[in-house]
Amino acid sequence: MREKEMSKTISTRIDDKDAEKLEKIAKKENIDRSALVRKFILQKLKEYEIKQMTDLYKKGIVSLQEAASQANVSLYEIMEYVQRENIHPPDQSKEEIISEIEQSKKLFK
Question: The whole model's pTM is what?
Answer without folding.
Answer: 0.72
